Amino acid sequence: MATTVAAAVVLAPVALLLPASPAHAADGDVTINLLLSNDFHGRINNNTVKWAWKIEDLRTNTVADGGLLIGAGDMIGASEFASAVQEDQPTIDVMNAIGLDASAVGNHEFDRGWDDLRNRVIDNGANAAWDYLGANVYEKGTTNPVLPPFMTYDINGVTVGVIGAVTAETTSLVSPAGISTLDFGDPIEAVNRVAADLTDGDGANGEADVIVATFHQGAEVGAGSDFDTEVAKGGEFAEMANLNPAVDVVFNGHTHQTYAWDAPNLGGDLATRPFLQTGSYGSNIGQVVLTYNTTADAVTGYTVANQAVPTSGVNADLVAQYPSVLGPIDTTVTDALAYAASIGNEPIAEQTSDITTAFSAGSYVDGSYTGGTRDDRASESTMGDLVANALRDGIPADMGTPDLGIVNPGGLRNEFYYAADTSTNPNNTDGVITYSEANNVLPFINNIWLVDLTGAQLKTVLEQQWQRDASGNVPSRPYLMLGLSDNVTVTRDPSRDEGDRITSVTIDGQPLSMTKHYSVSTFSFLATGGDNFRAFTEGTSKDTGLIDRDLWISYLQDRALLAPDFARQQIDESGMPATVSPGDQVTFTLDKLDLTSLGAPENTSVKLYARTASSQIDLGTFPVTDGMATIDLLVPAKVPNRSPLVVMALPSMTMAGKGLTASTVTATADPITYGAAGAVEVTVDPVAATGSVDVLDGADVIGTGTLTAGAASILVPAGTLSPGSHSLIVSYGGDATTAGASTAVTVEVTKATPTISIKTKPAKVVVKKTRPRVMVTVAGAGDTPTGSVAVITGGRTYVVDLVAGKASVRVGPFAKTGNRSVVIRYFGDDLYKTAKKTTTIKVVKK
Questions:
Q1: Between residues 512 and 451, which one has the greater pLDDT?
Q2: d(CA 150, CA 152)
């Protein structure tokens, strides 16, 4: 085997090398039969024996010197009821019986946490007998793997090394609490490191002749795509293109895609190496038949293919072909189904028609969606919204009253089909929902948490539907649409900048308030930041102790008959106004009006209404094509000013309206001295609010300001308010998207300090003879002071009323010569304080 270090791979068409044929094997050739199963997800059902038969048949009928059965993760977890009800023990027993040699861990192996995987599932090999590998799963804060990075196996004298790694996205795919002691590193870097060790000639760190890398990660698309196209998309799969060329075979999982590709391998034993994924749920067995020549110390050829698992045939006939292997498996499956049937076959609810996840690649036939493939996680579904309703309504009153429920689409693992399936359960007739069917929808055993979020934090959660991992990278699923309870409506504009694409949210018909707190009922997986919805962790969480399965089953049992709700909670819009006014020319587009759950109606029209205080005014009907409508209308004169706009798609009854975002106004004011101008400082939340704010004294507007960044300083003109305490109203009138609001502010106005000026005449005052006149002027910054003044001199007090702010009085004559003091006292009035001023009069002999 070549041990050259990895070099950059040039993706270009390559000539396929014909494998060495075992029938014409060269001297030293060893043929190795490598089989793959990925994303089995506990499929314990009537097809399990067929899956095992296919493995045994490929072992038996492939000419080879030996082989390995390898997994690429998610062998357990997100399992069907027959496995889930026994914590996947039936699946573990089946894997042991079929002889699974090794598997990468998948993210679902960590569904119940690392302690459960280590101590119960693996249990030092006493339970799961195969080697669970995780070269990039480290003890937290270190690079010490907590699982074996690789294992080697001898195939007729050839050492085959199997390296396992799981997607680094695992941290966002399972409950963080369960993996709090672990780190998940770069899987490609980890595999390259181990591959280098296995080919460095140092037996102390392991050596291998052939290396298989099994990743729980894969291409985004299989059928209909190719290796080069998928690599061009970037991400972890693209990085696999540059794997150490010493890696001879690459097995994939996680993305549930089906492909068998020959990929360039610059510097490897061959010009290409196989990349293989089998889809999911045991639908195929992947097979690579590889020839290694011991003389050349190199891989000299391979074939790669997916071998379909049969879906028909009698299990007993299959067991009879390989009884020693399939007999125990058949017994395990039979026992597991019987146990599950005792619990799961009982009906718990009824339905009127299909309730499903979102499907892709289907079509509308006679106005109803049909066909395609389940589990389109980028789209809204009837199942997702139903589960969200259960999360909102299923919490016992003594545990809290959530405002809304939120569901991650990846948590929905089964459908409710109306059609009967009596193949294993005679009770499962048309319209019946059984315990096991319900359990299979939510198989992860999450606790239900209540998370207290502000409106701003909740908006961020919705913005995070456009995905970024913790490092800021776009993951393999770039968009995940959350399921929302039916009291929530959301409008989105994907053309806007990331982080600003949610254009409105209403809850119970009320616009989202950025500062108000909302109680969200959700799974512990989401509450702890799973699926990259990290904004949940900014809230205050409470674990109710309820398990999702129990709440869900109870919710279904409490309802006599379930029907799918085809109204969407989230739609796309561009340019849609929150309100309309007479004479407005309104133009905007609507998109994503249709659901793609089975049976969803194809919308054909959308009606527009202007909502008034007591009714609504029909604004017209517009056609819908492929879930999209273009609106262009002139608002008639009969519509009240700034009426909320509502749209309704038909026949789905999808309704949306941006509403007006609620606002709050706060105001403060420093004391004002009468006669001086003052200011009222105003802030409006949300900060994006625009428009004007008025300050009113009773019905009179005494000041107006314009908001800038949600704030305004409003001038109170001098003299507007008299001295005293004034309760003013601060009123924000709203804007196109924000509702108006008001508040009160108290302004204290103090009396002004007047100025006193004094004149006396004549200039010469003769002792015992002259009676001089003292002339007083009292002035202020505003209105002219009123009231009276006292003139005090010569032992006498003269009180004189002000006239137009002035007073005059004769004093004297004075009995003695010299400078005589004259004190003027102003007694104040409603606007001015008291004041005092002193002057002198010079008295002479003659």
A1: 451
A2: 7
Amino acid at 482: L
φ, ψ at 79 (rounded to 5°): -95, 160
Cα 734 from Cα 293, distance rounded (Å): 80
What's the token pair of residue 85?
């009800």
Closest CA to 189 of 141, 139, 244, 231: 244
Kindly give, in sequence order, each residue whose CB lies less than 8 Å from that of residue 126, ignoring residues fewer than 6 positions away: none
Cβ neighbour number for residue 382 with a 10 Å cutoff: 29
Hey, what are 351's tokens? 């339905």
The SS3 call for residue 714 is strand
How many alpha carbons lie under 13 Å from residue 620 in its C-beta half-sphere?
12
For residue 743, give the 3-state DSSP assignment: strand
> Token pair of 144, please?
């010490």
pLDDT mean over 815-823: 93
Q: Are 409 and 483 in contact (CB under 8 A)?
A: yes
pLDDT at 626: 97
Rounded Cα distance, 556 and 621, in Å: 37
Average pLDDT, the chain: 93
**Domains annotated on the chain, with CATH:** 22-334 (3.60.21.10), 345-557 (3.90.780.10), 570-656 (2.60.40), 664-750 (2.60.40.10), 755-844 (2.60.40.10)
Name which of 835, 811, 813 is nearest 824 in CA terms: 835
Distances (CA, A) of 15 to 10, 40, 225, 262, 271: 14, 33, 19, 10, 8
CA distance 266 to 230: 18
At 153 the pLDDT is: 99
CB-based contact 615:632 (threshold 8 Å): no
The one-letter code for the residue type at 798 is Y
- For 466-491, what is each residue's pLDDT tens digit? 999 999 999 999 999 999 999 999 99
Distance between CA atoms of 189 and 221, rounded to whole angstroms?
A: 23
Which helix (H) or strand (E) segment holds residue 171: the answer is helix 170-173
* Identity at 157, one-letter amino acid code: G
CB 337 within 8 Å of CB 546: no
- What's the distance, CA 495 to chain centroid? 18
Pairing status of strand 711-716 against strand 678-685: antiparallel
Residues contacting residue 95 through CB under 8 Å, at least 6 positions apart = 40, 71, 75, 128, 130
End-to-end C-alpha distance for the chain, whole angstroms? 136
Q: What's the length of the chain?
A: 846
Are 254 and 107 in contact, with CB atoms under 8 Å apart? yes
Q: Which long-range contacts (CB under 8 A, 24 or more apart) does 624-630 make?
A: 624/590, 624/593, 624/649, 626/594, 627/591, 627/592, 627/593, 627/594, 627/602, 627/603, 628/589, 628/590, 628/591, 628/593, 629/589, 629/590, 629/593, 629/605, 630/587, 630/588, 630/589
Contact 844/765 with Cβ under 8 angstroms? yes
Contact assessment for residue 651 and residue 640, using Cβ atoms and an 8 Å cutoff: no
Task: Name the least confident of 186-190, 303-307, 618-622, 731-735.
Answer: 731-735
For residues 417 and 432, the answer to whether their CB atoms sit within 8 Å is: no
SS3 583: coil
| C-alpha R_g of the chain | 41
Task: Give φ, ψ of 823 to 5 degrees.
Answer: -105, 130
CB count, 10 Å around CB of 347? Answer: 16
Is 416 in contact with 562 (CB distance < 8 Å)? yes
| Tokens linked to 558 | 């409490």
* Contact residues for 686 (Cβ-Cβ < 8 A; gap 6+): 514, 661, 663, 710, 738
pLDDT digit string, tens, across residues 755-810: 999 999 998 999 999 999 999 999 998 899 999 999 999 889 999 999 999 999 99
Q: Which of 209, 260, 199 is nearest to 3 (CA)?
A: 199
63 and 30 in contact (C-beta within 8 Å)?
no
pTM: 0.61
